[in-house]
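Workshop exercise sheet. Pairs work together: one partner reads the sequence aloud, the other fills in the structure field after running the prediction. Swap roles for the next sheet.
Pair: D.N. / O.F.
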Amino acid sequence: QLQLVESGGGLVQPGGRLELSCAASGFGVSLDYYKIGWFRQASGKEREGVAYISVRDGGAYYEDSVKGRFIISRDNARTTVYLQMNNLKPEDTGVYYCGVWNEGREEYESWGQGTQVTVSS
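Structure field:
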């Protein structure tokens, strides 16, 4: 079963930017046939979707809360999915996770440990 690992979080001031990475555990594991989603969970709140990508064709979709500010992409080798976050706001604070779409169960799964993003002055 695919296991994902997130990285790249940190502390940033409002208006700043960060880039998160999501890759499968193990070296160079291909994500080519998967749909990957970025999610976040703020303290005391449920996990919510942020952005999604079909790794094979690069098709992307964004939730309204991040549209125009975040960009989801994948590398040419299709082993890593990125989330570039621009013009960050305090409400973007949370633990960010990536998950893989399970067609049979119709849900995202294989969450990693997440990476903390804190937007604060």
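Discussion prompt: The mean pLDDT is 94. What would you look at next?
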